[in-house]
Amino acid sequence: MKLLEELARRQLIVVTGKGGVGKTTIAAAIGRLLAARGRRTLLLEVDPRESLHQLLGTEPSGGQVIKAGARLSSQNLQARSVVDGLVREKLPIAALAKKVIASSVFQHFAEGAPGLKEMAVLGYALRTVEGHHRHKADVVVLDAPATGHSASMLAAPLLLSDAIAGGQLGEMAKELAAFIADPDRCGVVLTALAEEMPVQEALELIALLREKIGRPPEVVVANALYPSFPSGTPASRTSDGNAAAILDLWRQRRAVNERELKRLRAGWKGPMAEIPLLPLDRGPDLLAGVESALAEELR
Fold first, then answer.
1. Contact between 23 and 191 (Cβ < 8 Å)
2. pLDDT digit string (tens) for 154-166?
């Protein structure tokens, strides 16, 4: 089965990678591809700096679900607001819920409990695809925190379910752990640049995912690759000094890409998508170009 069809079957796709590798762009491209295949898709961003709207050409979410295209919506979600929302849900008396949320005991618990905020975000995604929110989606594409934080996020429900026996929190953790562990419902896409540090972190994250959730990512996306350097072009002999410097830089960067792609392939035998570097500013045009390239690779 084509990889895009495999991803389209999932209910949650977690897109991760080292900061600065284009993770948000890849997440947005996947969201648009799934929406084009008829899946009601929610793009979920957890970075408080909120940059997803720049790619989609929409207004900032501000925490709300906003329309970003046919069958496509986006939302910037803060974990702490989800935790507070759970309190309001469980305590329908508004004054009591407000008092609990404002208490110092709850404040310390919400900020310090290991895995609580991570589990809250995953729980929000699960409740969305199960139809418990006003905005229902068939699939949530989560633009997750960078590298190791994503592995910790995915492992949080399992850790909490082991630590907490019974009660509403324990049951939620157990349900989420089963959701994350099911490869037919949850998938991971890892994004990297073909450079030394991003490739090293990608290989470490692949091992970490195997250790923490028992399986590797569905696909590794090598993003922003320099085009192949034309054979027979003696860059250093070009009469124009600026042109020579540009050609030398191109040749050097492509050589780094090729070296690191080779190292990545040596440590990762699964599917890989290679996305070219596009000479476009961050925005809808860049997203369209990456979406087109990713569609070809995933097919």
1. yes
2. 888 877 776 666 6
